[in-house]
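During the second half of the funding period, the structural biology subgroup turned its attention to how the target accommodates small molecules. The most pressing case was adenosine monophosphate, which had performed well in the primary screen but for which no bound structure existed. We therefore specified the complex as follows and requested a full 3D prediction, including the ligand pose.
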Amino acid sequence: MRIASDISDLAIPTNLRIGFVPTMGALHAGHLELVRIAKRESDFVVVSIFVNPTQFGKGEDFDKYPRNLERDSALAEEAGADLIFSPSVATMYPNSPTHVHVPVVTERWEGAFRPGHFDGVATIVAKLFNIVRPSVAFFGQKDLQQCLVIQRMVSDLNFPIQLRFVPTFREADGLAMSSRNVYLSEEHRALAPEIYRTLLQTAKLIESVGSETRDIPIALVRGRDHLASCGFDVHYFDLVELANLEPIEELGKSAALITAAKLGSTRLIDNFIFSSELVPSFA
Ligand code: AMP
């Protein structure tokens, strides 16, 4: 495995199926699962490690975001990476006025709570796609809205890239793995799995009420209230259509429960996808 920080040193083979896993480092088992799947489904796997300043808002954790290239490289290599691309901020943003803005799907949820976040994400992913030129790129379903934003961008801007959205990898107690979980205090770490338990309980309730649509808003309020009573500051907890993340009040063929909630200063996001039969990249 090679590690390159300059675009001119990448030397990515042009005759192979290139799998690409963009990350911000601080790799955990969820990231490594993406790398393993990429290895199975392509001939040469590129993992980018770049803490992208433009997707962090003011007062967010850009400065304290965990960085450890040596550890990350060793883990990525073990999982099957052939090349790590770890550029500097100056390499990626020698000048920065051009950006990619994906409309509509960016407006609600994370987009509303983190203004500008998805412009930062879409711009860096577009730049990395043009630099790496992958055949297939792998993203985690944990960041569900990000998957939709990238899907929209790839479609609207005609990137000749296949997308694969990989199911969320979880700790044994159900907590979605995230590089930010290290910020949780011991007490909050013990509480954090309640977010997924509440998603599962609410999903069960929603499935059981079926077409009794007036019961769905009640189930959502119950979920929200339960998390709040446990000490979460709930930013949203909603039922949406998987294809566009618009709120719905009945269970269609492809729906998801999505949530974001803060425990202390740590913001956690998670989701439960009911059915993905209409959206093949979520298989
Ligand atoms: P990040 O380093 O947080 O930007 O994440 C890089 C990629 O890994 C994104 O596509 C994430 O959605 C994905 N990812 C992060 N956490 C998980 C997880 N627990 N399971 C699966 N994929 C994940």
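Two results from this model are relevant to the next phase. The first helix runs from residue 29 to 41. Residues 197 and 265 are 21 Å apart (CA to CA).
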